[in-house]
Amino acid sequence: MEIGTLVIGIIIGLIIGGLIGFISVKSMQSKTAQKATHTEDELKALLAVQASQHLNVSRQALTDIQNKTAELAGQLNNYEDSLRKANSSADETKDTFFGEHASVFLRNNVKTSKNDLALAQPDAQPRDFANSGSGVFVGLSSEPVEVNKSKEE
Predict the structure, then answer these.
(1) Are 128 and 134 in contact (CB under 8 A)?
(2) pTM greater than 0.70
(3) What is residue 134's three-state secondary structure?
(4) CA 38, CA 42: separation in Å to the nearest integer?
(5) Are 116 and 122 in contact (CB under 8 A)?
(6) Average pLDDT of the segment spanning 26-34
(7) pLDDT interval class at 29 (50, 70, 90)
(8) How far are the Cα atoms of 123, 125, 139 from residue 136, in angstroms, in the given order?
(9) Could you say which DSSP state residue 114 is in?
């Protein structure tokens, strides 16, 4: 009997262990299925939020590009207009070297003397500072020109 009782105890233990194992496996599968659907829903929500953020950033970038393009087009039009005006009125408009106010000041304050040779004789060459030379041969000693005695006599 002892062996029969032992065998019956083992069989009952195996049946009860099998039932407990079966119930725990079913419970874990249902939790895993719920967890999978819960995780899948969270993933879909996260992707929807990220897609919304991506769309907002893309729209903002598109708006910035359109604004910059419009600004660039305006600058190009202004540049073309300034080129047209410069070409059409190049003879009419004279830009002063010193600026508007400085040119008037210089014109009024610079006194021209009537004794200035350059102003008195505009066709004459200005004097150079090489004394008697032309400036090109300043360093050379000039030899006296020999006078032709046959003509003097």
Answers:
(1) yes
(2) no
(3) coil
(4) 6
(5) no
(6) 82
(7) confident
(8) 21, 15, 8
(9) T
